Amino acid sequence: GQNIDQPTEMTATEGAIVQINCTYQTSGFNGLFWYQQHAGEAPTFLSYNVLDGLEEKGRFSSFLSRSKGYSYLLLKELQMKDSASYLCAVMDSNYQLIWGAGTKLIIKP
Amino acid sequence: IAGITQAPTSQILAAGRRMTLRCTQDMRHNAMYWYRQDLGLGLRLIHYSNTAGTTGKGEVPDGYSVSRANTDDFPLTLASAVPSQTSVYFCASSDGLAGGPDTQYFGPGTRLTVL
Questions:
Q1: Given an 8 Å threshold on Cβ–Cβ distance, is B42 in contact with A31?
Q2: Tens of pLDDT along A49-85?
Q3: Closest-CA residue to B6 (of B22, B25, B27)
Q4: Which sign, positive or negative, has the C-alpha torsion B75, B35, B86, A40?
Q5: Which residue, of A10, A46, A107, B84, has the fewest CB within 10 Å?
Q6: Which residues of chain B does A87 touch, with a Cβ-Cβ cutoff of 8 Å?
Q7: Which residues of B touch A99 (CB under 8 A)?
Q8: Is the Cβ–Cβ distance between B23 and B109 less than 8 Å?
């Protein structure tokens, strides 16, 4: 079966760095997405990786290793507004997104 | 530009009733999707449409139907609601074009409670 694993919850301190991991087993691979979802709101797109390596976008970076079925989202200079759930999703061979359950990130002052 | 709108924002429904959740996008996207989101689970695809006039079943289609009469609208109907359909429903769209990431953009969601 298809599976996306990410930690349920993480806690970090304002101003620090946090890495949220995602491992996947899917039928085919056509890219990996990270979304941010604040409580009670819709998911919003953060990043997309289809080739191995690091994609940097401001304070957020996303890394992919296709051979290991592994990705991480790195958040730098954490701000209180970064408190949210972070969703990892993989596009499978049918071009459908398979979603992880999300990682709830709690930022403490 | 509104992006994607959904209606209603929330609804409490008696079991056995019929309900249609509305979704409209103004981005001229080819593809549209309906997901449900339940606590502790990832988003699960209910139905999708790659282009106007076509629809397909996702991971959890039972008890739901969709139609795609035009590019902008993609309503989701619960023919006879049951309590297990209590969830938050998100509509999404993407350009559906080959060669790109086909990023999905989400509406604000409908919170549905079936009693």
A1: no
A2: 999 999 999 999 999 999 999 999 999 999 999 999 9
A3: B22
A4: negative
A5: B84
A6: 42-43
A7: 42-44
A8: no
